[in-house]
Amino acid sequence: MWDSFSIAAALGPTSAYFLALGWLRLRHQVWVLGGGRDFAALAFGMMGWFVIGPLDLFFPRPAVLWLGRFVWLFLLVLYWLVIAWIILNMRHRLVIYGVQANSLRQSLDRLVPLMDASGSVTDLSIQLPAMGIEAFIECSPLAGVCQLVAANHSQTSHSWRLLEAAVANDLHSREVPSDSSVNWVAKLMVVVGSVLMGLSLILLLMNPAQTLVEAAHFFRG
After folding, report:
1. pLDDT value, residue 179
2. Can you give the pTM of this predicted structure?
3. Measuring CA to CA, how many Å separate 42 from each of 39, 81, 135, 184, 205?
4. How does pLDDT run across 24-35, given as a tens digit for each residue?
5. CB 129 within 8 Å of CB 160
6. Roughly how many angstroms between the first and final C-alpha of the chain, as a whole number?
7. Are strands 133-140 and 145-150 parallel, antiparallel or unpaired?
């Protein structure tokens, strides 16, 4: 059974993730992230649950005799090495927050001829043969998020960095209409993040002495 410290440790990163994402969305700006950075942010939000779940379940207790509490440092490094390995093996992807499908399509219609004269854009895909880019367009109207997802693993990071910079510069330089449904989702994320953060603080401060005991017990494994 999880104690107060464990639950608070799990809720902390998750609440920070919700608050950051909701706050960014409420600023009514377009945010363009590479797939790796977006996945790393999600991994941070889930880190607490991973620590009190799989890491605690398979905790190498004999290692505590040699490393003491530093064993948690090695486990967290291992966690982020696994995340880095997943990111390196993912297909290239751009995640664009705060944009609807029609706005993204207009942006791509402007950019593609400038980046590659032989390029083409449809409602579902984008092709830039000279840059070796072929990607699918995926949008979620309710969330106000669109993605460009590489069709295969053979595309280069350099080409995708150029595409990311071009899309970000174009969308940032133009007025993107806000959507009431997207605003509602952003406000909900802020509320959820605030509630989780408040609950985490309550669990930590409700009985500080007991929290310290639970923390010491947790890190001893």
Report:
1. 62
2. 0.84
3. 5, 15, 22, 21, 27
4. 888 878 889 999
5. no
6. 14
7. antiparallel
In the sheet that holds 133-140, the strands lie side by side as 31-34, 93-97, 145-150, 133-140, 125-128, 120-121
Closest CA to 152 of 127, 117, 130: 127
Rounded to an integer, what distance in angstroms lies between the CA atom of residue 196 and that of residue 192?
6
From the CB of residue 129, how many other CB atoms can be counted at a distance below 10 Å?
12
Q: Which of 195, 192, 161, 173 is nearest to 25 (CA)?
A: 192
Contacts of 24 (CB under 8 A, 6+ apart): 31, 97, 98
Q: Which two tokens stand for residue 42?
A: 């999600």
Most confident segment among 110-114, 174-178, 206-210: 110-114
